[in-house]
Amino acid sequence: MPTSPSLPDGFVKSWPKLLLRVEGACIFGSTIWAYSRSNQSWWTFAGLLLLPDLGMAGYLANTEAGAAIYNSFHTETPPILLLCAGLARDSKAVAGLALCWLAHIGMDRMLGYGLKYGTGFGHTHLGEIGFPGGKDVETSQ
């Protein structure tokens, strides 16, 4: 579905935005299913589920550092690599940690929380947090 050429760069709108949210739901659901097959504690899962949000502490320095640190905890590459390492080493604990991390990222995307811009905590690639439908963010980044 083509987008209007008048739209500013830096955010996802309409159909692609919906696809990213559905993708997040699939990641969330599949990681919960995989974790259930690991026979690990659901208390551990619950305790670790929000751990990636500790990346918000970077905002204590400034918004640009906060966005960089937060985003490093909210992109799929590190937990996928960790999951591969856990599976390769036959470590249920490492694989479980990676699944919790991926579940968190999937949950965030499903709910419309995207990667942050350095212009403000609420400015994400999926729109501005706190606005119905995710108000689009205009950014020069």
List the helices and strands and how they pair.
Layout: H1 14-37, H2 42-49, H3 63-73, H4 77-88, H5 92-110, E1 116-117, E2 120-124, E3 127-128
Antiparallel strand pairs: 1-2, 2-3
Helix pairs in contact: 1-5, 2-5, 4-5
User: Which strands sit side by side, in order, in the main sheet?
Assistant: 1-2-3
The averaged pLDDT comes out at 87
Number of helices: 5
Counting structural domains, the number is 1
As a percent range, the share of strand residues is: 5-15%
* SS class: mainly alpha
Annotation, overall tally of beta strands? 3
Tell the overall outline: globular
State the helicity in percent bands: 40-55%
Terminal-residue CA separation: 24 Å
Regions with little confidence, pLDDT below 50 for 5+ residues:
1-7
Q: Rg, please?
A: 16 Å
- Along the chain, the helix and strand elements come as HHHHHEEE
What does the largest sheet look like? 3 strands, antiparallel
